[in-house]
Amino acid sequence: MVPSVEFWSLPVMLQMIVVIIALLPKIELSQIDVKIALMVPENHSYFSRMMVEPAIEEAIVEVRKRELLPFHRLNVTKYNTQCDSVRAPVAAFRFMDDGGHAFFGPVCDYSLAAVARYAPEWGLPVISPGGLAQDFLDKKNEYKTLTRMGMAFDSMTRFLLAAIAHYRWPKMKLLYDPYGQSAISDRFCFLAGSAIIKEIQTERTDIKGDYTLLTTDPSTYGKVLREDVGAKYSSK
After folding, report:
1. Are residues 159 and 224 in the same domain?
2. CB atoms within 10 A of CB 233
3. Is residue 22 assigned to a domain?
4. What's the CATH code of the domain at 108?
5. Is residue 92 exposed (0-12), middle (13-18) or buried (19+ Cβ within 10 Å)?
6. For burial by CB atoms within 10 Å, which of 49, 150, 182, 207 has the most?
7. What would the 3-class secondary structure string for 78-128 be?
8. How many domains does the chain have?
9. Rounded to whole angstroms, how far apart are CA atoms 17 and 217?
10. Could you give the angle at the alpha carbon of 188 between the alpha carbons of 14 and 108, nearest 5°?
11. Which residues of the chain have pLDDT under 50?
């Protein structure tokens, strides 16, 4: 499933801004500047700055026009995370040194994980359409101030396992390329596969589940299907 670029539409951006203001620590009326970090990669198939920035700017114009936040002035600082787990938290620390209040993004899982772990220590909200991995469900210990507003692998996993239960399939074999669909997110298929495997191992022990990492050599696929799938997981 591919995240829709329509996520960055004006109504959604307005909601994100209002949510962030609601989550902010109490600000005196004399402190009217609200500093927001827009943390997205410069170049990315679905969440690039070129795609996100126009919606952000239009949302801010609408907030002012409708006087939704009459005592606040929204200032957005842009950071190119490059979907990197090091660059993103470094940018977050620079933003904090400047007295930041909230984060839009990061969107890529590995950069988001780093920033979202620090954010609770600062008491700042993180709003993101990313965070596909199932690990982001841990809001009790690690990602306390993270709000995900997009699709996630945990909902995909629940749908898949519900279908398996409906058809009473007792066994499943998961085949995936850990580096597949990297244009969407780094190691997209690895994160998706991990969510399914974890759910089966912890919540659905009634299903016999196994997985195979596919190599980059397509000539091996036939052998995998014959020996791993056909011999062990075919129906009687």
Report:
1. yes
2. 16
3. no
4. 3.40.50.2300
5. buried
6. 49
7. EEECCCCCCHHHHHHHHHHHCCCCEEECCCCHHHHHHHHHHHHHHCCCEEE
8. 2
9. 46
10. 40
11. 1-5, 7, 29
